Amino acid sequence: MKTLLLASALFVGLFSSTAAVPPPAPFPFPVPYHAFCRALWLFATPCAEISTTIVQQIQVSGPQYALVSALPLFVKANHTSPDGVQAQNITFSFSPTVLTGGCRVSAQSTSLGFTSLLDDGLNYCNLYNLLSNSGLISAPGFMEMTNEWACLGYGLAKCKA
Question: Does the domain spanning 34-156 belong to CATH 3.30.310.80?
Answer without folding.
Answer: yes
